[in-house]
Amino acid sequence: MLIPKNNANLMRTKILIKLAESYLENKFADADRIPLNLRPKDGEISRCCVYKDRAVLKYRCMAGLGHCPEEETDELTSLKEYGEQALKRDTAPKNKLSVIDIACSACIKSQYVITDVCRGCFAQPCRLNCPKQAISIINGRAHIDPDLCVNCGKCYEVCPYHSVVKIPVPCEEACPVGAITKDEFGKEHIDTEKCISCGKCLASCPFGAIVERSQMIDVMRKIKETDKKVVAMLAPAVAGQFPGSLNSLAGALKKFGFAEVIEVAVGADITTQKEAAEFIERMEEGQKFMTTSCCPAYFRAAQVHIPEIKPYVSDTKTPMYYTAELMKKEMPDCIAVFVGPCLAKRAEAEYDPNVDYVLTFEELGAMLVASGINVDECEEIPFGKISHAQGRLFPISGGVAGAVADMVQDKVDFRPEKIDGLTKENIKLLKRYATKGCENNMLEVMCCEGGCVSGPGCIALSKKAARAVDTYSKEGAQLTPQTKLG
Amino acid sequence: MEKIKVRICVGTSCFVMGSAQIQSLEFNAPSDIADKIEIIEERCMGLCKDITNKYNRGPFVYVNDDLIEEATYEKVVAKIREKIKE
């Protein structure tokens, strides 16, 4: 049974709601009550005691306020003070995933263990196949010497009794690029140089120990305390994230105080046309294949971890880029806020001068809940720019390649392949394609399995969201290579 | 036997606070209850606004006539099993 969001993740939503409420009610004057309210004395506990729960919650609140728990210099700094500091900053906090060390359970190092199921058999395939001679038979049972074991898993594969188990570390298992590792005390740390900001570790940690800096408070302050026009740019994955129509959502955001709401699918249409043109050009030049570039986690992975593939990555900009460019042309002084399912977009925004802030759907949801806005009851406000079917389908695996295919038509041979999910295996596969070639010529790479609808910042179930995206796309007009955009 | 009505509130507040996750009952409900339930998406029932006495206790889910506050997938499944036994 898979419940996509576990208790640790749901708690994050509650924290964001409480922080948004605290800001709106009294600018964090009572913020230090949040951990107490979420873990009252006689309520349930999820760690050793209510006090530890509250201590962890305080760090999670810090992250919700845009601070990194590692920055703590004085344990007595209150959430009220952290909140006030957040209200003083004028630029977005730098994106960073980090581990709350007291929340990290220091899972035992990933390893293979031989269980009591071992029969001490005559064949001893585990011992024979071990490349490091780490297995010996002691008292009629196989035994792994942890100092010699290199975690290759051969014994696990060959034991006819399935007596070898693998004990994984969830965050390390989830991280596709080996950016999260243990220190000498067994606590996890994230190497910022290696991290691609995909958020897989955050979603996978059963202890809710991994956090990232939120920009929610910054955006709320810009709306409520400055006279700047704040524009929400809704990623195409928004369909299905808030029950009610997208036009009602636009109404809800205007009610909250956003000056303008635009769909990033509009930018996705531009990406589609440009990427198709680029693809045709590259194929005519005789390049083996091209990969998409809209997924910022993949884009960064290619730069840092798969340098072989860099020449094949499309140079076309992302839908967020074109949408923000459009907005800044029309309203040069506006504050452009991208709202999406993605944590890696925060990293992308740091290199995009037109994007000021990035929110997740979860954070936007928390803002709406805290201000008592029900999307379904809001006025339906039509979008100024209308997106097309192709751009709307970007957040589903296969959507980007499909859109480009529609533009390329039969001008050049088009053989798409979906790389659905940036896993350790798929990174190896991409390396192989870059060095040894690939039978297909268009690789669509999505870091999140299933596409952006499965991103870590989503609210809705990916299955339902994918359905909503598909329906919304079918309502859109078809884009053609001749359609004039912008 | 008449199906048990599971009415999940999908108003913004309930949806964000976790009813979105309870919707996984539509796809992979445990086999003992899967064919005994009917899932209904309910627009905001106004329960979250009744916060004069207590703080918003969403998400709200009705299993037949029983209201579940701070509903979770687990709580809803437990209630459905209870109803089946009745």
Describe the SSE topology:
The complex is a heterodimer of chains A (486) and B (86).
Chain A: H1 7-26, H2 34-38, H3 50-64, H4 79-88, E1 97-99, E2 111-114, H5 125-129, E3 135-138, E4 141-144, H6 154-158, E5 164-167, H7 170-174, E6 180-182, E7 188-190, H8 200-204, E8 210-212, H9 216-225, E9 230-234, H10 246-256, E10 260-263, H11 265-284, E11 290-291, H12 296-304, H13 319-330, E12 335-340, H14 344-350, E13 357-360, H15 361-370, H16 389-392, H17 399-408, E14 416-420, H18 424-436, E15 442-446, H19 462-475
Helix pairs in contact in A: 1-3, 1-15, 11-13, 11-17
Chain B: E1 4-9, H1 12-22, H2 25-28, H3 31-34, E2 37-42, E3 61-63, E4 66-68, H4 73-85
Parallel strand pairs in B: 1-2
Antiparallel strand pairs in B: 1-3, 3-4
Write structural notes for this entry.
The complex is a heterodimer of chains A (486) and B (86). Chain A is an alpha/beta fold and 486 residues long. Chain A has 3 domains: 7-106 and 171-214, Alpha-Beta Plaits, CATH 3.30.70; 111-167, Alpha-Beta Plaits (2-Layer Sandwich); 218-475, Fe-only Hydrogenase (Larger Subunit), Chain L, domain 3 (3-Layer(aba) Sandwich). Chain A contains 19 helices and 15 strands. Chain A has helices at residues 7-26, 34-38, 50-64, 79-88, 125-129, 154-158, 170-174, 200-204, 216-225, 246-256, 265-284, 296-304, 319-330, 344-350, 361-370, 389-392, 399-408, 424-436, 462-475; strands at 97-99, 111-114, 135-138, 141-144, 164-167, 180-182, 188-190, 210-212, 230-234, 260-263, 290-291, 335-340, 357-360, 416-420, 442-446. Chain B has a single domain, classed as Glutaredoxin. Chain B is of the alpha+beta class. In chain B, strands 2-1-3-4 form a 4-stranded mixed beta sheet, with helices on one face. In chain B, a hairpin with a 2-residue loop joins β3 (61-63) and β4. Classes of the chains: A alpha/beta (486), B alpha+beta (86). The A-B interface holds A 1-5, 7, 10, 13-14, 17, 37, 242-244, 252, 362, 365-366, 368-369, 372-377, 459-461, 463-464 and B 10-13, 15-18, 20-21, 23-24, 26-28, 30, 41, 43-44, 49, 55-56, 72-73.
